Amino acid sequence: MAVEGSLEAIAGRPAVAQAAEQGARLVDLWPLTNAEHLANDAKYAEDLQVRISMVLAQLMTGEDVTIPDAEYVYEGAEDIPGRPQDLVDALMAANDAIEAAAQAQEDRSKMLADLAETLGSGWDQARQQDMAAGVAKVEQSLDGQSTSPKSPQSKEGVARALATSLAICRDLLRRAGADPDHAAAAAPILVYVNELNERLGIPRAFLSGEDVVRALGLLDDPEAFADLLAPLAGAEWDHHRQEVLWDPEEAKRKAKEDDERKSREALQAKFAHVPEDPNKPPVEL
């Protein structure tokens, strides 16, 4: 894990500071008391698991996994007509891994080893031992520091938590031997770090398969690694906040206004070539 000075340097980077503002705006919503917001948050959590399982399956198989694939499996499908069975098996394994990690309470070194087995990371025994040592170091450093992700934090607190998460993620990815050509080795770490974020008091994040591969090419540059991932986390936190606050009636109203505006613009464009009659009174469109 990074030393104190390195954490402060990463926490102070503009990209991390901006993401911290976005994260603080999200956690400021809690505790949720509005029934609609609670339902929206539950739906967001399901959507996030679908998207994460899709990415994990992409990393595991190297195949083009789609959101519909991931949705079918999340809903209980054990095969998908016309789709490779190894892809479906990878999606099932990804969901098992996500759910097991969310329920784990103790011995997170064993949890990561179990994730690696479930997700087919390809770690040999020496690698597993090194990963266990890395996780033990992380857990020791976090003793007594865990907090709720759904309680208010200052943006400075979010920035420090995000810097800590990024440093741990980068260290574990390097230990795992993950790189753009061995992206499957990253899969268990992505699951572990999202659970770690919860304990650090920041929300889970989402990375696409392309984002993961790009990040794996930056493991030797902590600042570039942070500058890439922090905005992605911030964008996801903004999306999460928008999903929680989504109001179907307001959405309908805005859609109606947009339709009316587009109709007016279409009429104006249709008759734009017609010369104006200076003697004709103005007509409201």
Report on this model:
The chain is 68% helix and 0% strand. It is mainly alpha-helical and 285 residues long. The relative contact order is 0.15.
Q: How many beta strands in the DSSP annotation? A: 0
Query: Which fold name fills CATH's third level, the topology?
Result: Fic-like fold
- Please report the first level of CATH classification, the CATH class: Mainly Alpha
Rg, nearest Å: 23 Å
Largest sheet: none
What overall geometry do the principal axes of the alpha carbons give? globular
Number of helical elements: 12
Q: What percent of residues are in strands?
A: under 5%
The H/E string reads: HHHHHHHHHHHH
Query: What is the architecture at the second tier of CATH?
Result: Orthogonal Bundle
In round numbers, the mean pLDDT is: 90
Count of individual domains: 1
